[in-house]
Write a structure and sequence with these properties.
The complex is a heterodimer of chains A (152) and B (86). Chain A is built from seven helices and four strands, in the order H-H-H-E-H-E-H-H-H-E-E. Chain A has helices at 3-13, 19-31, 41-48, 63-66, 81-91, 96-108, 120-130; strands spanning 54-61, 73-80, 133-138, 144-151. Chain A has a four-stranded antiparallel beta sheet. In chain B, strands 2-1-4-3 form a four-stranded antiparallel beta sheet, with no helix packed on it. Classes of the chains: A alpha+beta (152), B alpha+beta (86).
């Protein structure tokens, strides 16, 4: 076992990094074996992980959920991060009066969002947290519909 | 970079299907011809609505360039709808 690999596994065992971070570090190490030293903590993770370019949404639903016989239904959507950033910039052009109306509509439906506070920096933060998010939704009678959202 | 091609694919067991390649780069020709007029109209609308013109222009450009790489794929048993912008 290589020294770097052992170091990553040690960090994982000691709880300094999460499983997802360890996986990313190992993948980065395999992609670039010449990049020798592996530093500890989040900085190393950020440095070795390349910036995601797309947001991927995958939905898989079986027959019992869709009512369509013959197999599963899949929806696979890839949205460039640049488009999301443009959307956030577009939100910045919405007049203040409209912000209030949108915020009121959101809060009416139980979503505490303040549109004027959504900035491109928030999106970057969201992207960092979305790095490996998986959501599994249980369907009727124990059948599973899988929804997966992640950045790539 | 701006998107140059949109690929639309629809297939169904009851229909022979469709695969359409839309050359988006050809839209630059009418856009270049109408560009000055569109800019004037946009400028007037921005001035009337009190929206910053250059920010609006930048935003529109970001949206246009951000479309490249969009990929939507929906598959049900026997049916496929796919839209790709490259």
């Amino acid at each position: 076992m290589g020294e770097e690999r052992k170091q990553i596994l040690d960090m994982l065992a000691s709880g300094r990094i999460s499983v997802a971070e360890a996986e990313r570090l190992l993948a980065a190490m395999e992609a670039n074996p010449s990049a020798g030293d592996v530093r500890t903590g989040a900085t190393a993770t950020v440095e070795t992980t390349r910036r995601p370019k797309y947001l991927r949404v995958l939905v898989e639903a079986d027959e019992s959920m869709t009512g369509l016989r013959g197999g599963t239904t899949t929806v696979n959507v890839r949205v460039p991060m640049q488009l999301l950033r443009a959307g956030v910039r577009l939100a910045g052009l919405i007049p203040a009066q409209a912000h209030e109306q949108v915020d009121a509509a959101f809060s009416k439906h139980g979503i505490p969002v303040t549109l004027s506070q959504i900035r491109p920096e928030n999106l970057e933060e969201l992207i960092d947290h979305l790095a490996d998010l998986t959501v599994d939704v249980d369907g009727r009678d124990g059948n599973a519909t899988k929804v997966r959202v992640y950045c790539e | 970079m701006t998107p140059s091609l949109a690929i639309l694919r629809i297939s169904s067991p009851y229909w022979r299907g469709l695969r359409l390649w839309v050359p988006l780069f050809l839209l630059w020709i009418p856009l270049a011809l109408l560009g000055p007029l569109l800019l004037v109209v946009l400028g007037i609308v921005c001035a009337l609505r009190g929206v910053p013109f250059f920010r609006t222009l930048g935003c529109a450009w970001s949206l246009l360039t951000g479309l490249r790489g969009v990929d939507v794929d929906v598959r049900t048993p026997g049916n496929v709808v796919q839209v790709r912008i490259v």
